[in-house]
């Protein structure tokens, strides 16, 4: 761990956010429109025919899942793109030749990506308020949980960006792994609604623990205990940091 | 002059098993322009990449301004500005933003006046608000130089600064490098254009297949390896070389109007005066004399051939 070039961290962080700002309209409109669509389809059309789930009105029940789904996708996409693009265009030479440590690099890139996904999460949360009354049981825990999720999935995206050797590889994990797992992870239903063996199988899906934990911060209860959710996030952070540490030590796909 | 870069026993073996550098030793003096000359694949870029932190060495050590490039990478890299061979830029960003970013990444406090000065010196000031993708290739190269200079480095690496650049731009670049030198920055440039090294460098290093074959002051190198050709323009043409001139091994040129004699400038007796005396004895009249120095190109070709023959 080497932290001293704070100017470099600030410069990269600002530059990356500036990159996001350039496309702020799509960046902000997309989550608003997506959320609205989900509310029209699930909250309005289907939700009107459903009673409550776990004692919560269905439209409100899906809010944590929706936020989580967008944040996971955004985090992975932003962070992987942020580090993949310099590799692709060749501008990574500057980063590699600069007096900047691995820790500083990760803080700058992951910090910028996590900031953007937190902004998106907040926008979805506010948009949801237009459609449904939501009372958040543990607001501080909710904010903290969002922060942890943003950081851990941005770290995951950062790994993906270093690993990827083409745009297809960049897309394959989010599209083929993360999105399906999110859909099957109880974004739109409670795991209790499933019959065995599906219910037991679902518990092997890591995303269940994230959505459940986030739902707990809203309603005070989830599919699994909050301690399991926190344990999962902590494990994910540890694994990602270990892999990134190894990548920088060995120069994996960064240095010849 | 004090040395600014010390390279000792530098080796690099790529994962493929290819040995790109085979124990290079080199010292660069502060303030000089050093040209690293060699054919494609000789190891020029590999060497620069290792010094700048883009590639890892397999063995040996490098210090820049007294800082080891591994143990004290921050110190070493702060002293270095790098302009790589490929035109790699953030196409969608404005010129001034990327240059400001570069300064920040290298840990220097924001200094708008300094950035302005660099952009003006490089004739980029008018283009500062343009997106990089709107610039021509030559201008993009200038942006990369501006980025490399943004943090006030003591050493500037230019990896093939004029590769794929037209003649006029190349002259421009040479002028620019000459001006940079006035600021006291040490410049190391790689090239396979002999002309370029000849035009600008104080010292020349010739690298081939991962080995530094020689390092010399440019003028000393030219002298040491330089051969001169004496052309004697005859008043009346002759058909064959007289046997009396066999000792000088002269050749006949320009349809018998010229006698050409190649001599070593470093030899104790160049044989020029004795040849001229002999021509007088043989009553061969001449109306003009020319001597021509061999270029770095000739020297280089000879060096590479010598190595192949060995």
UniProtKB/TrEMBL annotation, chain A:
Location comes to: Cell inner membrane; Membrane
**Keyword Protein transport in annotation:** no
Q: Which family does it belong to?
A: Belongs to the ABC-2 integral membrane protein family.
User: What are the UniProt keywords, alphabetically?
Assistant: Cell membrane, Membrane, Transmembrane, Transmembrane helix, Transport
Ranges where the ABC transmembrane type-2 domain occurs: 22-251
Cited NCBIfam families: PRK15066.1 (NF011648)
Transmembrane intervals: 24-46, 58-86, 106-128, 140-164, 170-191, 228-248
Could you identify this protein by its name? Transport permease protein
Q: Which domain of life is it from?
A: Bacteria
Topology in the lipid bilayer: Multi-pass membrane protein
């Amino acid at each position: 761990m080497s932290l001293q070039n704070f100017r470099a961290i600030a410069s990269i962080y600002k530059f990356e956010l500036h990159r996001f700002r350039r496309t702020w309209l799509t960046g902000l409109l997309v989550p608003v429109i997506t959320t609205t669509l989900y509310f029209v389809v699930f909250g309005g059309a289907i939700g009107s025919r459903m009673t409550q789930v776990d004692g919560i009105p269905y439209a409100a029940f899906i809010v944590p899942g929706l936020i989580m789904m967008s944040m996971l996708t955004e985090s992975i996409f932003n962070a992987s793109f942020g580090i993949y693009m310099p590799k692709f265009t060749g501008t990574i030479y500057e980063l590699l030749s600069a007096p900047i440590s691995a820790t500083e690099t990760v803080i700058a890139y992951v910090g910028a990506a996590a900031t953007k996904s937190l902004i998106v999460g907040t926008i979805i949360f506010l948009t949801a308020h237009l459609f449904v009354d939501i009372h958040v049981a543990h607001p501080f825990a909710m904010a903290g949980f969002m922060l942890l999720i943003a950081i851990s999935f941005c770290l995951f995206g950062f790994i993906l960006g270093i690993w990827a050797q083409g745009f297809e590889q960049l897309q394959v994990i989010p599209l083929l792994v993360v999105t399906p797992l999110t859909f099957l992870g109880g974004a739109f239903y409670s795991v209790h609604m499933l019959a065995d063996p599906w219910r037991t199988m679902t518990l092997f899906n890591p995303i269940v623990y994230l959505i459940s934990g986030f739902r707990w911060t809203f309603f005070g209860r989830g599919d699994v205990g909050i301690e399991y959710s926190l344990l999962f996030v902590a494990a994910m952070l540890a694994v990602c940091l270990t892999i990134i540490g190894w990548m920088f030590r060995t120069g994996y796909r960064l240095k010849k | 002059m004090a040395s600014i870069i010390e390279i000792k026993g530098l080796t690099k073996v790529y994962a493929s098993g290819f040995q790109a550098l085979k124990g290079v030793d080199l010292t660069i003096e502060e303030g000089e322009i050093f040209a690293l000359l060699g054919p494609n694949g000789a190891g020029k870029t590999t060497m620069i990449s290792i010094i700048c932190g883009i590639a890892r060495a397999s063995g040996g050590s490098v210090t820049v301004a007294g800082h080891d490039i591994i143990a004290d990478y921050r110190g070493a890299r702060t002293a270095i500005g790098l302009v790589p061979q490929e035109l790699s830029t953030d196409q969608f960003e404005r010129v001034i933003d990327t240059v400001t970013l570069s300064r920040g990444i290298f840990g220097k406090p924001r200094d708008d006046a300094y950035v302005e000065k660099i952009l003006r010196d490089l004739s980029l000031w008018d283009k500062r608000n343009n997106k990089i993708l709107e610039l021509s290739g030559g201008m993009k190269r200038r942006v990369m130089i501006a980025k490399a200079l943004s943090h006030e480095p003591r050493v500037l690496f230019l990896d093939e600064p004029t590769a794929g650049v037209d003649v006029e731009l190349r002259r421009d670049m040479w002028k620019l490098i000459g001006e940079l030198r006035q600021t006291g920055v040490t410049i190391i440039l790689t090239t396979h254009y002999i002309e370029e090294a000849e035009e600008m460098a104080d010292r020349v290093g010739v690298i081939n297949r991962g080995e530094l074959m020689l390092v010399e002051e440019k003028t000393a190198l030219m002298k040491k390896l330089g051969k001169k050709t004496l052309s004697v323009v005859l008043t009346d043409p002759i058909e064959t070389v007289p046997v009396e001139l066999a000792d000088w091994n002269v050749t006949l040129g320009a349809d018998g109007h010229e006698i050409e004699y190649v001599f070593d400038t470093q030899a104790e007796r160049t044989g020029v005066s004795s040849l001229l005396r002999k021509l007088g004895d043989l009553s061969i009249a001449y109306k003009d004399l020319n001597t021509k120095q061999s270029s770095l190109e000739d020297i280089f070709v000879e060096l590479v051939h010598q190595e192949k023959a060995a």
